[in-house]
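Data card: per-record layout.
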Amino acid sequence: MTQAQILALPHYQESEVFSPLEKLVIEYAVEMTRTPVEVPDPLVTALRQHFNDAQLVELTASIAWENYRARFDHALGIESQGFSEGAVCVLPERSLESTFDNRRAGTS
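The structure for this 108-residue chain is written out next.
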């Protein structure tokens, strides 16, 4: 990811630095990271237009693994070791509802 993309993550839906497919994948990651996980069927259907079964499994596993690592580290208080000192780490906004659901409802 470019620094521009990292900075645009909180508002990726409106950003021009992400392709439509990248936005779809980010939305999938957002939905997978929610508790409880409730990925809308239309989102998976949209992803299947771009990925075959093996690719979708790999994408899902990658997102799940990064979510696991983040939660594991957070629970144990493991913090950055300084390898990316000065780099940007944009945190997601917690209060946003699913943008995919909002788009489907025509409210985005």
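Known properties of this structure: The mean pLDDT is 85. The first helix runs from residue 3 to 8.

See the next section for split statistics.
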